[in-house]
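I'll show a sample.
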Amino acid sequence: MEEANKGTFPLDVVKNIFSNISSIHAFHSQFLLPDLEKRMGEWASTPRIGDILQKLTPFLKMYAEYVKNFDKAMELLKQWTDRSPPFKAIIQEIQSQEICGSLTLQHHMLEPVQRVPRYEMLLKDYLKKLPQNDPDRSDAEKSLEIIATAATHSNSAIRKSENLKKLMEIYEMLGEEEDIVHPSNEFIKEGHIMKLAARNTSTMDRYLYLFNNMLLYCVPKFSLGGPKYTVRTRIGIDGMKVRETSNEDHPHTFQVSAKRLSSSPGAFQETIDIFQQKNESFKNALKDVEEVSKAELGKRAPRWIRDNEVTMCMKCREPFNAITRRRHHCRACGYVVCWKCSDNKVHLEYDNHKMNKVCKDCYSMLTGEGVTEGRRKGILEIEAAQFTDSSIMCGFLQHSEKGGKLWQRVWCVIPEKECLVLYLYGAQQVTKTQQCGVP
């Protein structure tokens, strides 16, 4: 906080990372711990703790706020550690203190998340050993009911934290070049496979990382402490199919087809099924909406689609995340959209003609004006993301100008539905091509 007050980094960064941890600490140090210590001293005459816990467990709801912000806090901590040397130096100084026990700050920040599940386990164990007719049983059971509810949210956050940790490990294994560290990405499975060459049936060592939305097909590389794999192909789960094949020399073979490749068919098929179910639920959410007619638009309050019913923007279909693409509701139609699709405001009659945020389609209908999208993009300004998921091939290649000696790594895309053209980008996230040509 002292460094933030000096202007080294914004004060809001510290508040967003550590959330309400000071309130949680005050609750424990000033209320829960003193009451429990006092009761332990009186245990001979008053052998019970259920009454204390029942009185104080409602305050454990403070953990819900901390848990809710935990993913965002981890992401912010990583971002500022990567981009701000003063911030990184402060974190390293904190972690070097003896009281930290050589553990990372992320480890200590996980402790409050794990606290409530520990209370739940201890209270369950206490009730197992408590006689059925004990006077403390009723209070202890009521306390357990409240704590168990809070623990459900904490356990979810712990799983997300473990998943994020795994994503970071994979990110480092791939040389910190693949954009996979994202709250919406869930690690499923990994492992070695042997690729059979199509022409001579020779085998080649390969490695696969399977996520909820994609498969990374990797090639091992010689490494002395550096990255261990290079991503050869990134395959989207959407449209992926897995079928078993037969080979006399190599049992247990299978083939993955989609917009590309293959490992454990069971895990693949399960991931594909889950992806399709989520996509279907998104379509059903669209069908179940009690749409506001054009005549009623802005005159009648819409039924808002619940946040948990959709995982992607209902206009541009881009997946939501907690940092760069958060959920917003159109006040005219009730759809859940991203900020890019809700960056317009109009006066709504049902809300006393106050200015409200609406999606671009509702804005056009209510004002009769089209949303300015900018000039039409030229052929060399096509966004990489527009074609990556619907391409004949995409991936990194080494490129050099004709006759040149300098080679550079570029992201290449051959669109599936466009004419047969190879687009070259500086990176997968770049929105402007460097070159294009017939492959």
Summary: The chain has a mean pLDDT of 76.
